Amino acid sequence: MYSFPHLLPPKKAACLVLAAIVSLLLIHAASAEMYVNENVQLTNDSNYNHPSWSPDGEKLVFAYDQAIWSMNADGSGRKKLYDNLAWEGDPVYNHNGSRIYYATESKKAYSARYTSIHVMDADGGNVVKLTESADAKDPVVSPDGTKIAYVSRLAGNYDVWIMDTDGYNNERLTDSQGDESSPSWSPDGSKLVYSLEGAILVQETDSVKPTVLLDNSYDNVEPSFSSDGNMIIFSSDQGGDYDIWIMGADGKGFTMLTSVSSNERAPAWSPDGSKIAYVSNEDGEYNIWIMDLKDQNLQLQEEEEEIVDTEQRQMNPYIDRIRLFANENPRDFIISVLIISFLLVSLIVYSFLRKIR
């Protein structure tokens, strides 16, 4: 009988077939949990900052070249709204998109310059100054449009304050020894999340005691709630450069949304939660980008997998490199996992078959 000496023995052939099947199942499971962000660069210049969505999600207002600008959410229709030849920044729409609150540099006679909060119509007209004397910035309008949260040095260091939208009835919310920044309202208007010296805290608006959500050795800044209040987006240098992260509103579970060798800052969730606007210096200068989350199923990592402990990170020095490779080269990563899993499963199955000979 004619034989085929070049063919593998039945047991080895079975080993390779089984290894291939298991490897394909493993790589399918791995790829099912991966998502690749569809990021689009909207501007191509420099010095962009603080993008903020209109309530209908159709426009973005932002700071550019020390002035306040707006554009459509696809990057078209850029328009300068206001420029008084001083610094302007931190623009945000009010609850119905009819007005824009922002911070600007002011000066009183015989005194130093300071930043104050102003409001204007959405087309740049009817400018009104709301705060005086002490530095004030980071305004954000409550969901019902009746209050503004902001940070001010009125009492010394930067604290979170709340005032009516006309500038009256100022009340101090926080009283810490550090500087708070970037307050953001919860969707129901009952609490504010903010950053304090690299930590992220949340506080009821009728309470004097905040709850710490995230406090580690990294700089975690610019937090804001998702539209459903279940997650918080923020920027952090946990991965070396600043990246965009999300965590549960209770501070549990983390997922890094960007992982490139650049800084991603000032994340802003669209009203429907399908997109994130942010600034990145990926091309060397800070420009506005949009991340599309529409077809992605965001999953928060389990708490024990969080990368928030310095000692843990020192024990796992290659975690960030692997994550960076997976995000920047998803296809190569999948192929690499397939090859490695195939080899490992082959060794395991072959060893098992040798024992049962």
TrEMBL record:
Top-rank lineage group of the source organism: Archaea
Keyword Membrane: yes
InterPro entries referenced in this protein's UniProt entry, alphabetically: 6-blade_b-propeller_TolB-like, WD40
Keywords: Membrane, Transmembrane, Transmembrane helix
Pfam families linked: PD40 (PF07676)
Membrane-traversing stretches: 333-353
Cross-referenced PANTHER family: PROTEIN TOLB, PROTEIN TOLB HOMOLOG
Similarity remark: Belongs to the TolB family.
Record's protein name: PD40 domain-containing protein
Organism, as annotated: Methanolobus zinderi
